[in-house]
């Protein structure tokens, strides 16, 4: 097997004098290390170790990001399955039910019975893949544990007026819709 020095000499990149000079410098450095009892720092080795540490840290960060993305994908799949299994029908869709989603007012058409369930809080609205679906309140709570942003909380109105409300004696009729 031919050494690197011999290969470089054959290629004409170095001459015999340069090779001898490098060998002498190395032997002098080793003698000095033996006499003083100290080790010289191999900069190339240190640089390689530092590069290896940086690469390992980068790989850990990428793995953490990949794991987080996989966990988020799994949560979305769980929510989709919960909605698919427990989806409630909207009925004939003759009554418009308005609700707020973020800063927008959205509307779905439901039957009168479904509207009563929504107002009473027995059904909740879930936003999934650009669609609004109705699910029972228990399922909505399970979905909210996984992703609170996908469940749209419908504000429940209580029939009991506040104690300091000046309009408490004026009741709103039951058949009044907004």
TrEMBL record:
Biased composition (Basic and acidic residues): 27-46
Region (Disordered): 24-46
InterPro entries listed in its UniProt record: DUF2058
UniProt protein name: Nucleoprotein/polynucleotide-associated enzyme
Native species: Massilia yuzhufengensis
């Amino acid at each position: 097997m031919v050494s690197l020095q011999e290969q470089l000499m054959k290629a004409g990149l170095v001459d015999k004098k340069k090779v001898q000079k490098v060998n002498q410098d190395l032997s002098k450095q080793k003698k000095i290390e033996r006499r003083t009892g100290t080790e010289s720092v191999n900069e190339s080795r240190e640089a390689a170790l530092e590069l290896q540490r940086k690469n390992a840290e980068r790989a850990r960060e990428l793995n953490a990001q990949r794991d987080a993305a996989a966990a988020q994908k799994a949560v979305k799949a769980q929510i989709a399955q919960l909605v698919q299994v427990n989806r409630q029908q909207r009925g004939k869709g003759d009554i418009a039910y308005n609700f707020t989603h973020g800063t927008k007012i959205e509307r779905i058409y439901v039957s009168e019975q479904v509207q009563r369930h929504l107002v009473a809080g027995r059904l909740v609205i879930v936003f999934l893949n650009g669609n609004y679906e109705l699910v029972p309140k228990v399922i909505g709570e399970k979905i909210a544990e996984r992703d609170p942003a996908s469940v749209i909380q419908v504000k429940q109105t209580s029939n009991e007026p506040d104690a300091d409300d000046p309009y408490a004696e004026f009741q709103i009729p039951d058949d009044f819709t907004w």
